[in-house]
Amino acid sequence: MPSLFIDDPALRDPPLPLPAAARQLYSAVCQGITYFEAFQQSYRKSIKGVRAYGDSELLNRCWTTQIHTSMSDPTRASGLQKSADRNDPNDQMYGQSHNQSHSQTQKPDLVEDNLSFPQHQRRILERIDALRRSCYPRMLEQAAAAKDGDAPWLEPELYANRLRHGAAEKLKRRVENSSDDVKYAIGGMRKDYLLAKDAMRELKSLRQDLTTYKACWDKNWEWEKDDGGESDQGYGDDDGQ
Q1: pTM of the model
Q2: Where is the composition biased (Polar residues) (predicted)?
Q3: Minimal CA–CA distance to 241: which of 162, 165, 174, 163?
Q4: Is residue 73 scored above 80 in pLDDT?
Q5: Which ranges constitute the DSSP H helices of the chain?
């Protein structure tokens, strides 16, 4: 199986700003979860007659056959309908209120792109890599480096950008720390159906991290000075692990 990652640094695109990389990763992860869950459901239906007596080798053969089918007909393999709306999925994903959860922003029965199983794998892994290599926006770095005397500490924009920088650092660290497990599960499930369960767990954990630290990438996030301090919870130095 060819590598799902671009291993040659010379062939990689220049680093993205972290907010853009995180938005793209969130979109890929949400759509991947929708696709893989539907794919697994379709697979379970297809093996209903052989599950009771089929060994792991036979079940894996059925699994890989369905993956090959997805490469020529993604909607048939997963049972998903393709979205008729061809607008930028990022605009749909982030146009909702920042107080809405990912379950409200993601449409579970539609996919934005007619991607196959391996293409969803590759896109998620490439966007994880893009976030790991991403750079912090200049205004966030300036806010993090600013001394209290450089600007009024209670200036809302400065404080909000410090919170965004803290969220960006934590998100990047979380993705870095979990990347090996994510790569193993997502890359391996192409040949081993048993790894699909691990892959879904890793993807949902990654989605939760992106949601928790959305201050650094969600265009609708705003710090509210009088919110009782809830907006900046979790963005300090302690990972809480």
Answers
A1: 0.74
A2: 70-81, 93-107
A3: 174
A4: no
A5: 18-46, 56-72, 74-78, 89-94, 102-105, 117-132, 138-145, 156-188, 195-212
